[in-house]
Specification:
Elements: E1 3-9, E2 13-18, H1 23-29, E3 48-53, E4 56-58, H2 66-70, E5 73-75, E6 79-81, E7 85-88, E8 138-144, H3 156-165, E9 173-175, H4 177-189, E10 193-201, E11 204-212, E12 220-226, E13 230-237, E14 243-250, H5 260-267, H6 272-294, E15 302-309, H7 311-317, E16 340-341, H8 342-345, E17 354-357, H9 367-376, E18 385-389, E19 395-399, E20 404-408, E21 430-437, E22 440-445, E23 453-454, H10 456-468, E24 486-489, E25 492-498, E26 509-512, H11 513-537, E27 546-550, H12 559-564, E28 576-580, H13 582-592, H14 594-606, E29 607-609, H15 616-622, H16 637-642
Helix pairs in contact: 5-6, 9-13, 9-14, 11-15, 13-14
Amino acid sequence: MKEFTITFLPEKKRISIDRGTDLLTAAIKAGIHIYNSCGGEGVCGRCKVIIKKGTYATEHSGRISEKERKKGYVLACRTMPQSDMEILVPEESRLGDIEVLTEEAKAKRLVGLYTPAEKVEEAPYKKGLKVFKHGPLSTKLSLKLPSPSIDDNCGDVERLFREIRKDRDIPIMQMGLSNIKKLPRLLRESNWEVTVTLGNRNGTTEVVMIEPGNRDGKNFGISLDIGTTTIVAYLVHLKSQKVLGAKASYNPQVDFGEDVISRIIYAEKEKGLERLHHVVIDTINSLIYSLAKEQDLTLDDITAVMCAGNTTMTHLLLKIEPSYIRKDPYIPAVNFMPVIRAAEAGIKIHPRGLLCCLPCIGSYVGGDIIGGILASGMDNMEDLSLFIDLGTNGEIVLGNKDYYIAASTSAGPCFEGGGLSSGIRAMKGAIQSVSIKNNKLSIGTIGKASPKGICGSGIIDTLSMFLEHKVIDRSGKIKDNKIFKVRKVDNVKEIVLVGRQKTETGKDITIDDNDIKNVIHSKGAIYTGIEVLLKEAGCKLSDLKHVFIAGGLGTALDIKSSINIGLLPDLPLEKFEFLGNGSVTGAKMSILSSEAMEKACVIANKMTYLDLSTSSFFMNNYSAALFLPHTDIELFPTVKKIL
């Protein structure tokens, strides 16, 4: 088959492809990440590139304007090279350097500096929020064994087990054949002084590794948040419980689709599951290697990995068929994954190191939400609390220490910058805050850089500001006003938020009627989901004592703006609390404490999943939430005063 050479500008990266390969696939192969919400179906119109040289065949798309077409723009996923080509990937089509929450989440309940033998008391700073006992997934013990004699003539394995069990309640222990084979010589050459690594594996204590001498301080673990968009890794010292480093990356699966459904569909293609599995494993291994190198560690020093991810991400991580997650009756292959060897999944740590995944609830509520509940401390609260993870799915959990009701809303990608004409993810140059003072616009960007586009927190601020200054009406329609110039493009009204002279891309950053409609539909899904859970629990909004917010919006989200547009309920601001990345915090808590991991399983077992697609209440009330803030303004008294 004939090959073509494709050169991607401005990097001048060259890649050889077979005839019949589209430009999006070529870009993925070249390691160039292009926006691609729809998995290459030609629907989202985000993968625009500019042809500089070469011949090609392309499908015409309404996503490319006539003006853009004259400049050589095409959709990469719909364009097939017919010769060698040069392609410019414009700034607005690139994923860019992502801004990811890697700091410690502001959880009210943390794993305390305790050992299993010490008493764990209630946390002094807030009644009812428990501190878990320190008992990591993998533990190293330094031992001095008595040498054998005529009177003490038990076998080497039994001698080791006996010493491990001293002052420890370990009913079941096991050790693999490879360790048994090397034990006799190792014990004698080390003068009976060894360090054993014990793994907590599905209720059984396993001798993972035996080393000569004292190496109990060389024991490290990795806590992972495998998100749909990003992957975050913490390097944790399992003895001191300190986080020694944090790294983050895009989840490279975004190249095959922005949401979980697109990826499940891709996984059903030939070798699709294999590709999705390997790209995420390669990224995880790269993050682990970088973290280890920074601390001058070997991969053998890392003995455990704890993962938190939604149900689809967990299946793809483990290369488990995900197809039935999206098919009626929506059953995953596994919710409570047993502890396995990390090597079985392809994760490169110690060859006998362990991999554990936080439990999932069902098809669309996974271990990332369980991690968030752990981080929030809801599982020990008498008070009624609400947990919201603001992302593409918009997971919501209502409950306290006795019960949890969970739901997943199809919020869409706009809270992560998707589905907006000038939307980008939270990266350097993304507009994240907007305000008007004395009829003058003030914007804040990530990294204080020149604006490239607008991310989730920025669009929420913008709509709130538009509503307050009557730039839009309560239905979201753009009105003529004295602050912004309103224009029509292809019969769609739009407002120029930032002119091209001030942007990084040299293009106007705009908000149009369709953007506003998308946000209204997304915020309506979240708010109506909250209403459904409260109704199912027989509770009122006023019963809520805490509202925990997790997810990619992090602490950049303005609560007041979110209330103004009807995304969050109109409650006193002191009831809201940001968790940051609750998923990775929950994973960290669980790798450091078997008690926390057990609690995660208890939470999952107490969780009732509510399918909103079958809820008549959701369907009947959703349309009422498609106004700003709501058709019933009495539900938002503070907003009523402003308007």
